[in-house]
TrEMBL record:
SUPFAM superfamilies: GST C-terminal domain-like (SSF47616), Thioredoxin-like (SSF52833). Pfam families: GST_N. Residues 18-105 form the GST N-terminal domain. It comes from Paraburkholderia diazotrophica. It comes from the Bacteria. InterPro entries: Glutathione-S-Trfase_C_sf, Glutathione_S-Trfase, Glutathione_S-Trfase_N, Thioredoxin-like_sf. This is GST-like protein.
Length: 141
């Protein structure tokens, strides 16, 4: 049973597959990071387009999930403890998906923090013109 009705964002962007991760995004540099991660991990997801030309990101339904009016954002019906989890900020979402899938992030604590270090470097130092997926790939395979 995946009841996402408590999340107002699902009123504007209806879930056809409420058992899948709901992705609210657009193919911008920050948006594609999450699409690539979802494709690479194989986690099932349902994409929803947040259109900037109609200011979808400013709509009350979108702001209910991310009050900072930015894509990407996700809603996972099967988050920690089996409860739904809503997340925004590409770095937080990438970490969550890495942990959930057990891919692209090492289990060893030192290697894990090194990966997070480069993730933060990308977010804070390089900005939205690069995707940070490459830093996770260092530990892929
Ligand atoms: N720090 C955020 C930045 C997200 C961001 O800047 N998203 C842009 C598109 S790449 C956006 O949604 N802009 C819409 C707006 O500001 O109204 C993240 O990493 O997720």
């Amino acid at each position: 049973m995946n009841d996402l009705s408590a999340f107002p964002i699902t009123r504007k962007w209806r879930a056809q597959h409420p058992e899948h991760i709901q992705l609210y995004s657009l193919p911008t540099p920050n948006g594609v990071k999450i699409s690539v991660m979802l494709e690479q991990t194989g986690l099932p997801y349902e994409p929803h387009v947040v259109r900037f030309d109609t200011n979808d990101q400013m709509s009350p339904d979108f702001l209910s999930l991310n009050p900072n009016n930015k894509i990407p954002a996700i809603l996972d019906p099967a988050g920690p403890d089996g409860r739904p989890l809503a997340l925004f900020e590409s770095g937080a979402i990438l970490l969550y998906l890495a942990d959930k899938s057990g891919q692209f992030i090492p289990k060893d604590a030192a290697d894990r923090y090194e990966t997070i270090q480069w993730l933060m470097f990308q977010i804070g130092g390089i900005g939205p013109m690069f995707g940070q997926i490459g830093f996770f790939n260092k530990f892929a395979g």
